[in-house]
Design goal:
This protein is α+β, with helices and mostly antiparallel strands and 339 residues long. The protein folds into 2 domains: 164 residues, no CATH class; 165 residues, Mog1/PsbP, alpha/beta/alpha sandwich (Protein Transport Mog1p, Chain A, 3-Layer(aba) Sandwich), CATH 3.40.1000.10. The protein contains 8 helices and 17 strands. Strands 9, 10, 11, 12, 13, 14, 15 and 16 form an 8-stranded antiparallel sheet that branches. The longest helix has 28 residues. It is elongated. The N and C termini lie far apart (75 Å).
């Protein structure tokens, strides 16, 4: 406790001297620095990384979070501790844990093992999640027992931030109202999206800042009456026909392995197919992930087709996949369209 009190007093003095001079935290939103002593880390690394950064399939399997381990020593430590998202492993008396603990209102009351959180310790806009361990016990077991909850904390924060970044331009409320009245369905889209309608096909697109670097696009149409027993192949035939006619470039789908599942959207049932598209051989080489939904709307006797796809070469794609999922999850139908 005496050591903790000393660190607390030093932290107060440091804050009074540097306060407003603290710089902004840096690093991408999905970049996480994991801090622990070098001793014992090799035994924990695989399990900690697997739980904190689980795989997700986009165009290929990729980590949801990019994790970097750093021992609390040297110049790299002084630099990397200023990242936006930092996960720290150690005992309450370890100096790299004691300093952020001392910024809390109740620094000495956290259970061990247990989880504590601090903000803006070494940089503004910074989140630090601490796994407090008893160094005299089985540290690996303690860490593994807390890793799932820590992942939930950082995952929820990332998703919340992704949603804020997605709608930074505002929401196209007028478009949602217009679609309800004229087309009988609605989607909630960021203001930055452009859209066009051709017959019963509606296309919504965001290619900012440059279509050579990033495209997010949705297509919505329907068939009536509701058909029976559609196969995945028949759905992909439809998708390729629409892409060939109405997208900027034709798209073909590798049908070797197309995972399919059933989801609930309110009281509606969704059939989902995910996979990868690519431009046909001989054309401009491009590829990306897609999410394809069918949604039955008995009130209108329509089967809606929703096709969301992404082009983001050389970028981490998980955040953009979350954006596609968010827009698709806002889909509603059953409205009486104006004749």
């Amino acid at each position: 406790m005496r050591k903790l009190l000393l660190v607390f007093l030093v932290s107060l003095l440091s804050a009074s001297l540097t306060g407003c001079n603290m710089g902004l935290a840096y690093g991408d939103p999905n970049a996480i620095i994991v801090v622990s002593a070098e001793e014992g880390w090799p035994e924990m690394q695989d399990s900690v990384f697997a739980v904190l950064g689980p795989d997700v399939y986009t165009l290929r399997t990729e980590r949801t979070f990019r994790l970097t381990h750093q021992a609390p020593v040297g110049e790299n430590w002084l630099r990397l501790r200023k990242f936006k998202e930092v996960v720290m492993i150690g005992g309450p008396d370890d100096f790299w844990i004691a300093e952020p603990l001392a910024t809390l209102d109740d620094p000495g009351t956290h259970p061990v093992p247990g989880i504590a959180q601090a903000e803006d310790v070494w940089a503004k806009n910074q989140h630090i999640t601490m796994m407090l361990v008893d160094p005299n016990g089985d540290v690996s077991a303690q860490v593994y027992g807390m890793a799932g909850e820590v992942h939930s904390i950082i995952d929820e924060r990332f998703r919340r931030g992704a949603l804020q970044r997605m709608f930074v331009s505002g929401t196209k409320e007028t478009l949602a109202d217009s679609l309800r009245m004229t087309a009988g369905f609605s989607l909630t889209l960021p203001e930055v999206y452009q859209w066009v309608a051709t017959d019963s096909l509606y296309i919504f697109r965001n290619d900012n800042p440059d279509p050579a670097e990033l495209i997010r696009q949705f297509g919505v149409t329907w068939r009536s009456p509701i058909p029976d027993n559609l196969t995945v192949d028949s759905l992909m035939d439809w998708r390729e026909a629409v892409a060939d006619k109405d997208y900027d470039y034709p798209q073909v789908v590798d049908r070797t392995d197309l995972p399919q599942r059933t989801l609930a959207l309110g009281d509606m049932t969704v059939t989902e197919v995910r996979g990868a598209w690519e431009n046909p051989p001989g054309s401009w080489p491009a590829a990306g992930p897609f999410i394809f939904w069918t949604v039955a709307c008995p009130e209108q006797n329509r089967l809606y087709y929703l096709d969301a796809w992404l082009y983001a070469p050389g970028k981490d794609k998980w955040e953009y996949i979350l954006q596609l999922e968010t827009v698709m999850g806002s889909f509603r139908c059953g409205f009486r369209a104006a004749s």
